[in-house]
Design brief:
Structural class: alpha+beta
Number of helices: 12
Number of domains: 2
Largest sheet: 11 strands, mixed
Shape: globular
Strand order of the largest sheet: 3-6-7-9-17-11-16-15-14-13-12
CATH topology of the largest domain: Aminopeptidase
Radius of gyration: 24 Å
Strand content: 15-25%
């Protein structure tokens, strides 16, 4: 259902949609202008159509769209109403517990994130600076009028830093917006020029009012991940040449162990994958999740199949097969598999599944084959997923990630500000200290710790 709100001078057409199918794939793609796989219309559709994201799963779609007088999409933000904190990879369970101990509801909360995906990337899009300001303006009003405990933007790219830290403020007068009657469609038929002038003047006045009671809209939180960077390598051995001698030998021994298990490993891009391949991968994924956590995982077989259909040119599947003496393994099902996504710049390692635990197999499928693919394709970065200090010795550099948080409750907001300031010091120190364990030669030039989030911009 399309909702419009207006003040005395202008109408601002916007809507919160409950399904991504309520906006066309063409319109969505034209606005975002990004090949980041997890923001693609087809990827979000796969999550919704398979019921991975719905009210029942605790990930209720609530995407915000802004339109102009001609009903053209000018800004959008992926949003979800969350009734828990699972699948976010930015841990706020202690915040929720503190709320509960004081008899305050922490859920529902509003989350600007890609479900189950701790991969830095765009989280909202706008056709202009004005449209971006309007997007955040509407979000601000929505937060003040709703019962959400707060707003959380998880793993946003640095392009959003300025908007998130400077464009919004917590005190927004409720009187600046009123419900637009559904019986007044002619409100959108006003002259386009006066429409745009009115909404700009209105936004300027409203932001001026907000700055009178200035308080940070959101607070930055730091995290640490381990990413691989391509320093113009031509092949895997070229990458290993950047290691200190002893560390280089360790990697070669680790890869040799996999061959001793008599397994065959294949790398297949999504365009060559069929329904059977996706079904086999899901079976491995489900078994692994069940063994580790006691449930089948966040995604089901339908979701993986739909992702494969939606992003055939942005998916990669690495599979391991037990090699028979007569080399008949081509007719067998894989014993392990790693699923990747990629765009024109970055490879993303996302899901793993196995029915056999062989020494070195996980590292080979999830890291080394990914590095080889990134080098072959000229990709500049490989994000293998959250956590895992074991990645450092394999050439993955500790870097900082970020999230932004706004809590409506003033006292809790102040307390968490203090917590985040202290936590940031520990995260920065940890990231710097972890870099000392990298296997590279002493004269190696590393990416800056804040290369993804540009703290000093």
């Amino acid at each position: 259902m399309r909702i419009m709100r207006m003040n005395k001078e202008a109408v601002m057409p916007y809507e919160f949609i409950t399904r991504i199918s309520q906006v066309s794939a063409q319109e969505w793609g034209d606005l975002w202008q990004s090949d980041y796989p997890f923001i693609q219309h087809g990827f979000l559709s796969a999550l919704e159509d398979s019921h991975a994201t719905c009210a029942e799963s605790g990930w209720q779609p609530h995407h915000l769209l802004i339109r102009n007088a001609q009903q053209q999409l000018t800004a959008a933000m992926v949003l979800f109403i969350k009734s828990h904190s699972y699948g976010e990879y930015v841990f706020d369970w202690s915040w929720a517990d503190a709320y509960q101990q004081h008899g305050i509801h922490y859920y529902p909360k509003l989350v600007n994130a890609i479900p189950f995906t701790p991969a830095t990337g765009p989280r909202f899009a706008a056709s202009s600076t004005q449209s971006e300001a309007e997007l955040l303006h509407v979000l601000q009003a929505h937060l003040q009028e709703s019962d959400f405990s707060g707003f959380h933007s998880l793993f946003p790219s640095s392009q959003h830093n300025k908007a998130l830290t400077h464009a919004g403020y917590t005190s927004l007068p409720h009187s600046s917006f009123t419900q637009a009657p559904g019986s007044q469609p002619n409100a959108l038929e006003q002259d386009s020029q006066s429409f745009e002038q009115g909404r700009k003047q209105s936004l300027k006045q409203s932001l001026k009012q907000q700055r009178a009671t200035q308080q940070g809209f959101v607070q930055q939180r730091l995290g640490c991940q381990f990413h691989w960077f391509n320093n113009d390598y031509t092949h895997f051995d070229d990458f290993l040449a950047s290691f200190a001698s002893r560390k280089r030998k360790n990697i070669k021994k680790e890869r040799a162990k996999v061959l001793e298990h008599n397994v065959r490993i294949t790398t297949t891009q999504g365009t060559a994958l069929q329904a059977k391949d996706w079904a086999e991968f899901y079976d491995l994924y489900k078994r692994t999740y069940l063994k580790r956590s006691g449930h089948n995982g966040y995604l089901n077989a339908e979701c993986f199949a739909l992702m494969g259909q939606a992003l055939p040119e942005q998916t990669l599947l690495v599979r391991a097969y037990a090699q028979d003496a007569d080399e008949s393994s081509r007719s067998q099902s894989p014993i392990a598999a790693a699923l990747y996504f990629y765009d024109s710049h970055t490879l993303y390692g996302r899901y793993w599944g196995a029915i056999a635990e062989l020494d070195g197999l996980h590292f080979e499928c999830c890291y080394y084959r990914g590095i080889e693919f990134a080098i072959e394709q000229g990709l500049q970065r490989f994000d293998p997923g959250a956590q895992g200090e074991h990645k450092i010795a394999r050439g993955f550099t500790p870097i900082l990630t970020q999230s932004y948080h706004y809590l409506r409750h003033r006292e809790f907001s102040h307390a968490i500000t203090h917590f985040l300031n202290e936590e940031a010091q520990h995260i920065n120190a940890y990231c710097q200290d972890a870099r000392k364990s990298l296997p590279f030669k002493e004269d190696s030039v590393l990416q800056k710790p804040d290369c993804l989030i540009n703290l000093h911009d």
